[in-house]
Structures are given as structure tokens and as C-alpha cells.
Amino acid sequence: MASIKPLGNRVLVKRLEAESVSAGGIVLPDSAQEKPQEAEVVTLGTGGTDENGKDIVFDVSIGDKVLISKYGGTDVKVDGEELLIITQSDILGVLSD
Which homologous superfamily is 10-94 in? Predict the structure, then answer.
């Protein structure tokens, strides 16, 4: 599998599958479903420093389930798998079990 190492404060995530059945039991086709906002962190960026010279510290770890911004990021496809590169600021929160 090819690999992508995001740069700076970027994070590579994989969207988690959206529900394909509505609360009323209606099966939704892919075209009617919204993009899921839940994702799993696959890889963290290289870090470095921000524009103010402060070290970039990641608040998430590989494997974390996160809530992401609905329209943020850049879609990429690696070996047939759809992934998303987002900035850490596009992560709204970490989901806990």
C-alpha cells in the first residue's frame, strides 16, 4: 500500500461509514447520504512550528475516533481507499466510547 505522510499540522483520516438506514427504517442510497462527520485518525503530520514560532502539538493520536468539519479537507484516494487530509483545526472533537 502506498503511504501518505501529511506535512505540518495536517492529519490523514478515514471517514467512518454513514448510516444507510434512516431513523424511520428507510434505506438511503449513497447519493442521498451526507458525508459522515466521524473519522478515524490514520496518520499525523510532521509537526514543526507554526507562523508564530511555537511548536505544533497534536491533540489527537493515531487510531482516535474524531468528529470533523463537514466541508473541510482534501479528499485523496490511495490504493482504492478514500481518505481525507485535514488540518488539526478541522477536528472538532475526539469521540469517546
Answer: GroES chaperonin (2.30.33.40)
